[in-house]
């Protein structure tokens, strides 16, 4: 669980956070002041967890994270809590601001052990922060394992053992009930498995001004409406269905049409003015029997599909759901990519190029229209096998750069990346989305937004967020068919947000 608080949507790697500190210090704010503010925020959170006068154990590491722990311990003691403190290493080995904060602690310092916090109401994990670059070993690993045992744990910055930039576990990691981080969240707060270890995450402001972000050049964001709401294509008074775009969903054969219909319904609910199912002759009857607002047109092969798409009013196309992994799908996909329409490639339209990726990449690069790829982990591994060992954020960025397309790598921590290196990490997807057909609806949402001329990265990020919000709005018992029907409720709430731009929708002054 995460709580952005006043932390904004920007996500900072460990190196970028260090740069934010440096810029702030260069402007005249001492590092000691930043550390004092950070420790005070930790102390405030610990008091909320423990209550007045409770016993609190503070476990400090050998760097600045430990320095934050020393500050929190001192403040809590001054406020009347019973505080004990253990240090990994020696006081003499501490450097810089951490050494100065340790010098201000005038109570015993105990040696670090896995049993140190056993009797405490709250344990403060101030061992290692977001910049940890090596696996935890020895006593540190033992402590991390012990702090995953269900007691109340508050982690400073990130749970020790979690890589703040990737969310990966470095050997062992603390499992926190809450985490306090500073200025902005880190990717590891949202990426799995790190997100599971963080518990409820609060962002504390410690005196770093937001304008330092302009000097750092942030390209990683939490996927939230603030990222894309200003580009959302709300219908306007006076607009008509043709102005809202015409999405085409390519259907599979007669026995595999359901996925395309799910996507078509998603595109329609996402706001496309018109949606057409492009179907071979054998699937026309079953699609027509199930479609009402969605139109059905025959396009049984690549040539017929290209002819259909020669009408430039048909401006966004999805192919892949239920298409089949065969030569016909490969040819149809190439026809779609040559059409001039915006394109979403999902499922079989990706897998069919597992052995011919260069052909796919060349076809994407030959046009100027936006392309979005929506693989799950298995499909990603088939198309980008050399990238699978990279950390997830890096993996998706590399795939977007290589393919020259926006890539949505689906999962509980879906990552969306653009060829220009912008990336967003999603965190609002509930586990109920793990059911058949939900990915088809997501592809339909993205196609519907592209049909309305929403830029590809923003359309992809919005589709992912809306998908999660619709699932959460429905709750337990979700099946894929429910997602499009929940979208009106989600969009109504979204339209009331400040800065949504949703003006003139009801025509009433």
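Q: What amino acid sequence fits the structure above?
A:
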């Amino acid at each position: 669980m995460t709580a952005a608080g006043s932390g904004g949507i920007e996500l900072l790697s460990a190196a970028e956070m260090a740069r934010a500190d440096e810029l702030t210090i260069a402007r005249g704010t001492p590092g000691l002041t930043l550390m004092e503010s950070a420790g005070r925020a930790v102390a405030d959170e610990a008091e909320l967890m423990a209550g007045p006068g409770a016993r609190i154990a503070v476990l400090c590491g050998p760097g600045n994270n430990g320095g934050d722990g020393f500050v929190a311990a001192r403040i809590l003691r001054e406020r009347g809590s019973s505080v004990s403190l253990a240090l990994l290493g020696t006081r003499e080995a501490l450097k810089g601001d951490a050494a100065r904060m340790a010098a201000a602690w005038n109570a015993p310092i105990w040696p670090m052990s896995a049993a140190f916090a056993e009797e405490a109401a709250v344990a403060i994990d101030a061992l290692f922060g977001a910049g940890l670059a090596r696996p935890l070993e020895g006593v540190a690993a033992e402590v991390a394992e012990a702090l995953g045992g269900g007691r109340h744990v508050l982690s400073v910055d990130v749970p020790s053992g979690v890589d703040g930039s990737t969310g990966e576990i470095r050997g062992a990691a603390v499992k926190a009930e809450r985490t306090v981080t500073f200025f902005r969240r880190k990717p590891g707060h949202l990426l799995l498995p790190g997100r599971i270890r963080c518990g409820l995450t609060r962002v504390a402001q410690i005196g770093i001004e937001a304008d330092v972000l302009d000097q750092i050049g942030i390209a990683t964001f939490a996927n939230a409406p603030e990222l894309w709401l200003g580009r959302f294509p709300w219908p306007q008074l006076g607009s008509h269905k043709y102005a809202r775009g015409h999405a085409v969903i390519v259907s599979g054969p007669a026995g595999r049409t359901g996925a395309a219909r799910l996507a078509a319904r998603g595109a329609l609910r996402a706001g496309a003015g018109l949606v057409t199912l492009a179907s071979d002759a054998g699937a026309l009857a079953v699609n027509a029997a199930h479609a009402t607002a969605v139109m059905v047109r025959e396009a049984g092969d690549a040539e017929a599909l290209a002819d259909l798409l020669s009408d430039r009013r048909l401006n966004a196309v999805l192919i892949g759901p239920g298409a089949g992994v065969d030569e016909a799908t490969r040819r149809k996909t190439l026809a779609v990519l040559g059409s001039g329409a915006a394109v979403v490639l999902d499922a079989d339209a990706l897998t069919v190029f597992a052995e011919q990726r260069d052909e796919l990449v060349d076809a994407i690069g030959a046009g100027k229209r936006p392309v979005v790829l929506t693989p799950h982990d298995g499909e990603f591994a088939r198309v980008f096998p050399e990238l699978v060992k990279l950390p997830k954020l890096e993996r998706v960025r590399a795939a977007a750069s290589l393919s020259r397309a926006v890539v949505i790598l689906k999962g509980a921590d879906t990552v969306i990346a653009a060829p220009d290196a912008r990336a967003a990490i999603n965190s609002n997807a509930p586990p109920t989305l793990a059911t058949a057909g939900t990915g088809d609806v997501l592809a339909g949402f993205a196609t519907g937004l592209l049909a309305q001329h929403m830029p590809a990265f923003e359309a992809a990020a919005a589709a992912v967020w809306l998908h999660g919000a619709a699932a959460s709005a429905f709750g337990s018992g979700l099946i894929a068919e429910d997602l499009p029907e929940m979208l009106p409720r989600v969009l109504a709430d979204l339209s009331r947000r400040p800065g949504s731009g949703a003006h003139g929708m009801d025509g009433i002054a």
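Q: And what stands out in the fold?
A: The chain has two domains: 14-215, 225-495.
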